[in-house]
Amino acid sequence: MRGGAPPHYDYNPNWSRQHGPTYHRSTVPVLTPFKADLSPDTERFVRQCKWLIANNVGLAVFGTNSEANSLAAGERMELLEKLVKPASIRRA
Fold it and tell me: What pTM value is reported for the model?
């Protein structure tokens, strides 16, 4: 690096709010929970993802564990919508 020492890379939890997404965390495959009738358990899925995010873990959904092959496109869309949209604007 020209002109001095390299920048200091201390972890700053507010960095992503100030500068955009960061990759200082691990990304893990998210297992899709299913109910006894083999339908996706949306509530458990969202709760698990929120817990991972709260613990500074990135999400890799639908693909790394092959659940996508077992889910219809509509089921995947419903899970993602519940995960990323605020409750106030979700479809009924």
Answer: 0.65
State which residues form the domain around 91: 37-92
Q: Is 63 left (phi over 0), alpha (psi -120 to 50) or beta?
A: left
User: In this model, does residue 37 exceed pLDDT 90?
Assistant: yes
Closest CA to 61 of 87, 27, 30, 16: 30
79 domain residue, yes or no: yes
Residue 47 counted as domain residue:
yes
**CA distances in angstroms from 81 to 2, 4, 60, 65, listed in the order given:** 46, 47, 15, 20
CB 28 within 8 Å of CB 60? yes
pLDDT given at position 26? 82
Residue 13 lies in a domain: no
| Domain total of the chain | 1
pLDDT average, residue stretch 23-39:
85
